[in-house]
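Regression test attached.
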Amino acid sequence: MTDAVLSVRNLQVQFAADDRVVRAVDGVNLDIVRGETVGLVGETGSGKSVTALSILGLIPSPPGRIGGGEVLFGGRNLLTMPARELRRIRGAGISMIFQEPMTSLDPSFPIGSQLRETLAVHLGLRGRDATREALQLLDRVRMPHAARVLRQYPFELSGGMRQRVMIAMAISCHPTLLIADEATTALDVSVQAQVLSLLEELQEQLGMSILLITHDLGVVAETCDRVYIMYAGRIVESAPVDVLFHEPLHPYTQGLLAAIPSAQGDRPRLEAIPGELGAVPSGPGECLFASRCPRVMPRCRSEVPLVREVRPDHNAACFLYG
Amino acid sequence: MGDVLLRAEGVTKHFPIREHLLGRRLLRAVDGVDLELARGETLGIVGESGCGKSTLGFVLLGLLPPTAGRVTFLGRDVHRAAGRELKRLRRDLQVVFQDPYGSLNPRMTVGEIVERPLIVHRLGSAAERRLQVAELFRAVGLRPEMVSRYPHEFSGGQRQRIALARAIATSPKLVVADEPTSALDVSVQAKILNLLKDLQASLGLTYVFISHDMRVIRHMCDRVAVMYLGKIVEISGKDALFDGPRHPYTRALLADVPGLDPRQRRRRQPALEGDPPSPMQPPAGCRFHPRCPFAQEVCRATEPALRPLGPAHLAACHLAETLGPG
């Protein structure tokens, strides 16, 4: 894709665990176009968060190690960029929000001083200018009683309010790409709806792209333009959101969708994917989903399926499609 | 209701919170809840963080004494029982928690964990207990050979199975499941929900199913109670509640559940503004009025009572008739 804001090419991330090496991310390709919202979906241990952290060079090393690949942002490879330059990209080019805003905020400083520090580091704003900008940012994320919040400490705010503060910091330098890693997972459904609506509004105003990392397919259906499904460190399917929900190709995607209780209550029993992720280790030369797949074929045990374009703009890594 | 297993009358639980040296305030976690639970049914309790649903579960189980009101199980007051009667109640009332990591003792093997209630209640000889534990493991879909392993060797879904095996060990009549699948991935959740339904059918269990997830509630429950700031604001049969909610808060909760069809996506307009107010200072009048899009003068002044609006359908809203079913 030529107009991609971010292109991840064959990303490999490994972790040293005891006496073995875990391939947390194994050959991930991913593109994000300007202004779009891309969902990266997977269950615990699928490698979705590791992928996101690798993009910003935030993998703790050791035990983590980038084994190969490229992360292209504005034509430059972030994986080989000097630390000084990468720091400039973080915040101004790409910023990130996390699931638990309490751990991202310093408990011992008021919100105002943390916002002003961000503004000083990235934009060189100080004193009254910084305070004015901080207030504007809080207004922008629709924070009620913004002036009072500047004087408050993180523990005095609700989870939803803390996430608004994180979003305010994240957009302070008008990033091209915002990565949201399970940013609404810890929130109640009414607050989640508020935060998702806010992100959508900010995206329109600022023209930024969003990479939404989540395990919640409902959130994806409501907010994303395109979706990547991850399983055991690999992308197994990608498609425009509408196509993915109506014509899922990969048996894993089909299983995930069938496992969700319906809001209409018309499924007496849920279809569960047999087995568990990582319970039966797969050999190096087979499909990682083979041991759980209801449609497994002999070929799946002897070859690794590669992602291929099954239909226009709809990719899957499965031998059912050739 | 035909066969009432458990009845809660005016159950109230206030926690004193020490704020300053002299100041003490009350956190009104549960405030005047009436409930009846029929044998064999699943009653869902749904609401957002801090609405008091878990506290209510603890009071129903007899694990927290209520500040006011009473809970009776088959006619016996749960909080006045002592001695043998109390022990019998503990056998009949069991619980499964959200966190499959925190609720299993890491120093005990999973076999010991499941056997523990059998020892406490003196059910069977050592040999009989061993057989019983193996049977319980099979019932929850685990291999009996796993008994000598420790909790850390299991995944979240397997731990929840162990917690379930422990809960059903004493052949209880009622199990309170407090967000039993909230920490699990969706494919694992599906298996645990199926297992809960299977166990209910084979053992004739009655469930109180506490969750914040409207999809899971609809899938699991026969009746649903919606809680807001310590009070039940609506209670009804599942389909009536989901298809024709009568309380504006229930409507909002349902509207904010993300859909699964991108074609039906609408411009997201959150149904509710702001966070739930603090249970330390619940608003006067209707507790929901500061967030309610329909609030009138009467809602600010007078607290609405839970009243019948349809067959076995109660809601606490002054405007229920004007608004009609949502």
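Expected vs. actual: identical. Chain B touches chain A through 46 residues (CB under 8 Å).
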